[in-house]
Specification:
alpha/beta, two-stranded antiparallel ribbon, Rossmann fold, 5-stranded mixed β-barrel
Length: about 300
């Protein structure tokens, strides 16, 4: 195989990857992703020691240890366009020899664990509830650019959603989280189907002054009976999960998304203490990671 060209695999003068400014030794194979750069410190304050702190643009990375477990937490920023950069470059750190620009023969499987916030679409789930995305429905345009696999349930759900939205410009795709990670970390937490939108306002059914062209698509999506297909309802709405699940799938990695439901779109409620909810989710996820995974 020909080495990857300078324009395909872009490195900085110090040999680090173009956007993340990271070297391979600065990242652990268990990686927590957060959207907000300030949330990186919210996670890493629980580390017993921090080895590396790197920042470029919105991409903030801390790598360290809790006990003997080595972890990386990285801020992706908001949106699946950033997920495209972060997951591809993190994969490259492990699975491409940056000196020779050759893809390695023996590939490393990574674990991506998203800790994020989300809006809820169901009245029965109160704000501050924690939820794991079993499936993610992408309303963005990222994964049509990649080849990835689907199970039969994902294909059926995708077909049903495409049909329901046939009168709109939307063409949703459906991807699943890692069942092994869900089984290991998801005990006693709600599971659901997460919608991933490419924006915060009109793409999530909000309208301020700019006129939305698709006003009722959320209501249309919620009329789709998903229970016979996957046994779960459509529960929440955010901006990264489908991209993480899709790219992790395409690259052969595992991924799970934890959501703190801060807003309930069905009732109009918003958390009275969102930071407390996020802090509680961070502590829960870290406790489970350390309890479940051996030192690496």
């Amino acid at each position: 195989m020909q080495p990857l060209s300078d324009s395909e695999l872009i490195l900085n003068p110090d040999g680090s990857l173009y956007h993340l400014h990271l070297h391979p030794e600065q990242v652990a194979p268990t990686i927590i992703t957060v959207g907000d750069p300030e949330r990186v410190a919210t996670v890493s304050q629980h580390f017993d020691r921090i080895e590396h702190r790197v920042q470029n643009r919105e991409f903030v990375t801390h790598t360290g240890y809790i006990g003997t477990k080595r972890l990386t937490v990285i801020a992706t920023g908001i949106g699946t366009d950033n997920i495209d950069i972060v997951l591809n470059e993190l994969d490259a750190l492990f699975n491409i020899d940056l000196a020779t620009r050759q893809i390695k023969t023996n590939l490393t499987k990574l674990e991506f664990i998203r800790i994020g916030t989300s809006g809820c679409l169901r009245k029965e789930l109160p704000v501050d509830t924690f939820l794991i995305s079993k499936y993610a429905v992408g309303l963005d345009a990222l994964m049509p650019y990649y080849s990835y696999s689907q199970d039969a349930h994902s294909e059926q759900l995708e077909a049903k959603l495409i049909h329901a939205l046939s009168d709109t410009h939307l063409r949703p795709y459906v991807v699943t989280g890692s069942q092994s990670l869900i089984d290991a970390l998801g005990t006693d937490i709600h599971h659901g189907i997460t919608l991933t939108a490419p924006g915060f306002y009109a793409p999530q059914g909000r309208q301020l002054r700019a006129r939305a062209t698709q006003k009722d698509f959320l209501q249309t999506i919620q009329t789709v009976d998903t229970i016979p297909i996957v046994g779960l309802p459509i529960t929440n709405l955010e901006m990264e999960t489908a991209g993480i699940y899709g790219l992790a799938n395409a690259l052969g990695h595992g991924a799970i998304s934890f959501n703190a439901l801060l807003a309930n779109r069905a009732t109009g409620a918003f958390s009275t203490n969102p930071q407390r909810a996020v802090d509680g989710l961070v502590e829960l996820v870290l406790d489970r990671i350390v309890a479940v995974f051996s030192s690496s």
